[in-house]
Amino acid sequence: MTTFPPLPANLAFDEASPEWMNKGDNAWQLTAATLVGLQSVPGLVILYGSIVKKKWAVNSAFMALYAFAAVLICWMGWGYQMSFGDRLVPFLGKPDVAMDQKFLLRQAFGGVMFPNATMVYFQFVFAAITLILIAGALLGRMNFHAWMLFVPLWLTFSYTVGAFSIWSPNGWLYKKGLIDYSGGFVIHLSSGVAGYTAAYWVGPRATKDRERFPPNNILLMLAGAGMLWMGWTGFNGGDPYVASVDASLAVLNTHVCAATSLLTWLVLDIMFFSKPSVIGAVQGMITGLVCITPAAGVVQGWAAMLMGLMSGSIPWYTMMVLHKKISLFKHVDDTMAVFHTHAVAGSLGGILSGFFANPKLSRIFYKLPDWDKYIGLAYGIHNGRTSAGFRQMGIQLLGIAFIVCWNVFSTSIICLVIRMIIPLRLTDEQLSIGDDAIHGEEAYALWGDGEKYESKGNPTYSVDESSMPQKGEVQMV
Predict the structure, then answer these.
(1) What b-and-e string marks burial along 295-309, b requiring 16 or more CB atoms within 10 Å of the CB?
(2) Which residues of 408-439 are buried (b: 16+ CB within 10 A; e: fewer)?
(3) Which end of the chain has the lower number of beta carbons within 10 A, N or C?
(4) What is the pLDDT of residues 228-257, one digit of tens each?
């Protein structure tokens, strides 16, 4: 995600369309941000609510919806400035609000041709989806009240560190030249590692749920997955911060990699399990989208296809083979397999970015005055700049190590602190009942033939039993 040094603060902000603003760029940036927002609400809300057992549909969808709202308030209050504001330490910015019109109507950093308000909105949807991805590892057993505490704490003490370090012009990994076009490190690697770490501390689902956890609606799951895929147009297409040729290339590379990865995963499922799995195809789609994210605008189309082949096979192997052999994988209950789909695929994409990054495309994206940075190892060897290529690979590996270590540490501390206040895991009785015990609501509140729906825990939305049809009666609409 490209960033630039901040501009002076005394820019005009008292005009509806100031000279520095490009209406096309601003419109595209707002559109791209909204596409990313739709990946979460309703995309992942629908995906989570339909891919779990029926008794967990409401809770799973609501975890995503709550995170989206909570992150926005925290982001405006302090998160944005901690991620993109003035430096406090080399890996974190100073906490400050992002609500004053003098700030929001001013030109965003680096000479981009839209206001801070657009930038805050664009960066918010990335922060929100990161928390929602973490929720995928915790579905079906985390105490919702503990989740309510986890979201603002993790955003504050984990997400902002990765975002500032890698995307802020003042961040230490940004200055070293790490390639993370749109969040392979900041979003996907961090959510995969944090989700897996939190799953360890929260504990597993009920035994029955771990043994059998069928989706309650595969068609709705596909609808949510489709929103996730199409929304990635904004996810990667918005990161040049301009409606440019590089944005177009990034969008095309994104879809090429996702399609290749989906088909690769599908073929492997057929070869080894004889049946084409719909859920497997969705996993392959996700790993392709994740893998291309750190490289989308700096690699050529053939490289995007090769990355799709690897993102459809390597995470498949870790999930379908290694997961059953390694004791740590078997011990930790990662409901949506976010470690494989996001941590493994994100790391893979980060490494391949350092290998396939085309220096010409990097120069367009990063607006470099020279060719000294962001050259992939393959091009370094080809152009006689092998040391520069190896340097880039080393920086990519350093970024992976930093994100992994920080997220294991910060997520563990956050979970241990929350555990001192409130249990991380639901009670056995709540695990047995599901949504009705936690929210007093059920996803499929159907009745008839004398059966009545009774809300046990939410009197606000309880149903008037006298209005329900009794046995032998017909409901008139």
Answers:
(1) bbbbbeeebbbbbbe
(2) eebbeebbeebeeeeebbbeeebbebbbbbbb
(3) C
(4) 999 999 999 999 999 999 999 999 999 999
Backbone angles phi, psi at 174, to 5 degrees: -60, -45
Residue 341, Cβ density class (10 Å: 0-12 exposed, 13-18 middle, ≥19 buried):
buried
Q: What distance in Å separates the CA atoms of residue 320 and residue 398, rounded to the nearest whole number?
A: 28
Nearest of 348, 345, 347 to residue 337 by alpha carbon: 345
The confidence score (pLDDT) of residue 153 equals 98
Residue 385 CA to chain centroid, in angstroms?
34
d(CA 367, CA 2): 9
pLDDT of 67 > 60? The answer is yes
Per-residue buried b or exposed e for 365-389, using 16+ beta carbons within 10 Å of the residue's own CB: bbeeeeeebbbbbbbbeeeebeebb
Burial of 95 (0-12, 13-18, 19+ CB in 10 A): middle
Reading the block at residue 227, the tokens are 């929103």
pTM exceeds cut of 0.85: yes
Question: Which residue has 């149903």 as its token pair?
Answer: 463
Sequence letter at residue 192: G
Tokens of 171: 């961040």
Q: Which amino acid is at 6?
A: P
**Domains of the chain by range and CATH?**
23-429 (1.10.3430.10), 445-477 (no CATH)
> How far, in Å, are 52, 141, 366, 469 from residue 62 at the CA level?
13, 13, 38, 30
Token duo for residue 183? 């969040």
Return the half-sphere exposure (C-beta side, CA atoms, 13 A cut-off) of residue 211.
3
